[in-house]
Amino acid sequence: MVLVRTKLWYFVFTGFAINTMLKSSINFTIIAMVKSHGHKNIPPENDTTLEPHNSTDFTTQGITLSKIIHFIDKEMSYNWNAKEQGVILGSIYWLQWTTGIPSGILVRYWGTKALFGLGSLILAFTTLAIPTVAQYGVQALVGLRVAQGLVAGTMWPAVHHMAAQWIPANERSKFVSAYLGNTMGVALIYPLCGLIISFFPWQYVYYVTGSLGALWCILWLWFVYDSPLQHPTITKDERNHILTSTDFSIDRKRPPIPWRAILTSRPLWINILAQWGGMWGFYTLLTQAPSYFKQVHRLNIQLNGLFSGLPYLFKTAFAYGYAIYTDKLLKSQRIGRTAVRKLATFVCITLQGFLLIGLAFSSTNVSCAVFFLIVATMVHGAVTSGPITSYIDLSPNFASILQGISGTVNVWPGFLSPMLAGYLTYNNQTPDRWQLVFIISGASMIVPGLIHLAFADSRLQPWNEGNSAYQLNKYELKRLKVSKRERSQSKR
Length: 492
Prior knowledge:
Elements: H1 4-33, H2 65-72, H3 82-90, H4 100-110, H5 112-128, H6 130-134, H7 138-152, H8 155-166, H9 172-176, H10 181-199, H11 203-223, H12 236-244, H13 259-263, H14 266-295, H15 301-332, H16 337-360, H17 366-379, H18 387-394, H19 399-410, H20 412-425, H21 431-455, H22 467-491
């Protein structure tokens, strides 16, 4: 019989995949939306002769499927320069940081089922609206993307809250690997965009992904429950195992949030700093890879979609395999939890930074560029076993709050990175300018990664049980230190 928490893994994985497809479809589709990339202009309103998007005939009467589709939904293109495109791509992150902490608080009362499910439904409907909104100009589209960002900011804190309730301590790395559904979403969306745009107008990318998102939301709201105590079909053995293997206060009154202890926690901020570096590299590759392969390597749209999406398949597989390895290390107790998280963070951030430097010096060698892109993206999969899981290690009771704080800070690379890339490559799409983009990204990862390696701590924090317990733990720690000092003096 399949464990309920295993089923939950699949729901979370597919949920993140769908949501990433909704958010990221424009990263690739913008190539077809912009006139400067060689796509056709809008036919005059009084011109009833519509050129087909391709030459695939489905009848012998000279009528193609593409002609019929063009009558239903004309393919439009827009005069957006590199700066405007950078603003459109990055605008989803402008206000995403504002909803991280509020969602971390709200999910403690509303539950992950409602917050994550309804947020995903809003993303689906706003994605369906992109073709219509784009006709009203850059400002209207940016406004829609900002709204999507507000909703997207609620996702990670919400699922962290669920993970703290459902997953035993030594299974967290494997479960959090489900978050890499967002990587699978990228791996699927780029080839899917290339395939759809090859046969239909670009608008259909948003129609397809938006419909998939709405369908998933219905399944999530129907089958998922917030805790083992609420699930109607979970076995008694599994429920008891979960309840006795977590540090989450699932059967007691919610402990008060120890804000001062959280905001002054050095382990938390070291972890956030490391994730800042990881997010800078992640967003650089996520938003800029299609444009890089188009401008520097002149790949056609099908190959561009393949090479932009393929690395994320490797990343997903690597993340899952590395997570299993990490959980085995923890269960064996051969090395401590902090050492395990440090190793994973070094792989996913510091090592990826060096690989991005390699990508920067690939020049026009497409084989070399693809190699570094695939490996750099792949090793970032260890992030689910490193900084992301560390928030639950530090405090299962307040994991949603910690993740909310992290999201508030680490969303900034999401819009700074594409804006910087747009500025550096504006009217200068040369290998040298793209080299500078990747060098900056690599350095932004290496430095925080090394700081994490030196100073990180992933042990359960004394403030996990709330303010009163934190004060008691501080007193006990002080007493133990005094006792240790007295014993040392007596030996002398």
